[in-house]
Every structure is written in C-alpha cells, then in structure tokens.
Amino acid sequence: MTRLALIAASLAVACLISACGRASDPTLTDDVIVIKFPHVVAPGTPKGQAATRFAELAEARFPGRVDVEVYPSAQLMNDDDSIEALAFGEIQMIAVSLSKFDRLTHAFQVFDLPFLFPDIAGVEQFQQSAAGEALLTTLADDGFLGLAFWHNGMKHFGAGTPLRRPADADGLNFRIMESDVLQAQIEALGGNPQKMAYGEIYQALQTGAIDAQENTWSNIYSSKFYEVQPYFTVTNHGYVGYLVAVNPTFWNALPSDIRAGLEEIVAEVTDWGNAQSVAINEDSRAKLEQSGRTNILELSAEELSAWRAAVQPVWEQFSDEIGPELIEATQNPAATNQRAGAN
Q1: Looking at the domain 3-342, which fold is it?
Q2: Positive or negative: CA dihedral 34, 38, 42, 44
C-alpha cells in the first residue's frame, strides 16, 4: 500500500491527534487561528506569490485572529510530507501539484494528459466548468477539501541536447513528478522516466543523474535549471497546476465569519495569482533568453504535430481510468455546463 493510500485509510485515526482535536473544539474560537502553509517553490514563482498574498490579506482582514505561516522552498517539508501532514491535521493548508494526488483519485490524472489543453485559457475554461469545479471536493472524504486551482503554467522540455523530434528523447533519463500518466508519456517517447522530488532536480541535472526534465518557464528560471541545462524546447505539452486544499475537520470547525472570509480571500487570490502566473512565465522566459546561458528552440507546426502523435496513445491508455466523459469535458466545457444546467 502506498503512503497516500495509507493516509486515506488512517484518516479516522488522524482526527484523534491533538491538532485535529484542537481545531474541532468550538471553545477555542477566541484563540489566534494558526494556518501553516508550506510549499516547495521559490517565493517569486506564481504559487509563491499567491501564498504570500493569501497570508497578507488573511492577517489584514482578521488582525489578531488569523496568523498564516507560509514556508516556501520546502523549508518545512516537501510535497509528499505536506500531503500526509494535512490529512493528519499537522498543517492546515497546502497547494500541491495535481499530479501528486493520482494515488487517491484517477480523476486528477486528466491534468497530466499530454497536449490536452492548448493553453492556460483552455485550462481555466475546464476548471471553471461544472465538471472542473466538481473535482475540488472529490477528495474531501480523504482529508483534502479543495478550495481552488492555482496555475503555475504550461510545461516545456529541457535537455542537455536539442529536442526537436520525438526520436531525440529516445534513451534519455527524464525527471518526472509522481504520476503514472507522465511515466507513460516519457515511455511513449522512448525515454526513461525518473520520479524525483522537485528539490532534487538541479543536483540531478548537474551530476548527470538525469538528462532531461519538463517544467514551466517560472520554475526553470527561479530554480536556475538553465545553469545546468543548455536546451529548452517550446512545446506547451502539459500543465502544472495546484490543488489549494485544507483539512476539512479544521476548516469546518472555524468560526463561520472567518471561514467565509477566508474563502472569499482564496477566490480573490486565485483570480489575482492565476493572472500573475501568465505574466511571471512570460517574464521568466524573457530572462532566460537574456541570460545567454541557454537555447530556446521553437518548433515548426510539423515538428509539434510529430510530438502530439507520439504521445497520443497515452490518452487511450488512461481513458478508462480517468473516465472518457471527463476527458470529453476538457475539450468541450461549455457543453458540460449546459448538461449540468439541464439537470
């Protein structure tokens, strides 16, 4: 049984530990409510800026009542540990990559399908549809109440050699997040997928433990991957986004005015942060080009079509697990909304 599966199985036990017990005690509403919010990326990234803004607004609107402690750059714990800690009530809030939850639900695997979304606008249309919004609460019984989706951006391939054709990926060791879909994607390209924590990427590239990786411009620049990786290929082949989630026991025990206020702040920060993510990624790409330390390769329409064709079988491989109706909803979110309205 995987660690995430153990979390779901042990959730009832989690509510007996002190953190959950304290959060569910209504007599403690006069105390300062501490929200520990760890994440693994730099403060200047889209997620880093959104987390900081949430903390600032929460403390400004509830002075002396809410204290948000943000821990960037894996200072407190990594993503896997934060998922476990949230389920057990040891922390109160996370914004973890959607790929990390594929052991608890196959539904989130839809976000990892290669070339599923043409751009961030396409991602937003789906996430704001009835089918997309329903995903926020799909893990509530497992200890993860989703409040919002935060964007990082669209992914591109980086390697030690130019990647222009799918055949160029053959035999390369690719770092991926813990996702079966991403594993299948790299295998479809003839590469060797290596599941690895985000904080280990730089050293692995530096030492040659991996040859390639996929990431957003903001992550590539902020984590300085360009120092140890000379080629990046513009593909927009995948999406990096986060589930902003809280421990349901903690959240539901909050005073109603604070809970409602924090939900409003999350919605406000989501709109602001997702708009910022576009600007941050554009700025990061520009800085990469200006650095003179890397080569950014643009593909022709024919070359890009070859990449799409190479990974298309991954859609078919995971269709039954994810659900063909959910995949369809990503391609036509408006139709999904119409069906939901008819019901």
Answers
A1: D-Maltodextrin-Binding Protein; domain 2 (3.40.190)
A2: negative
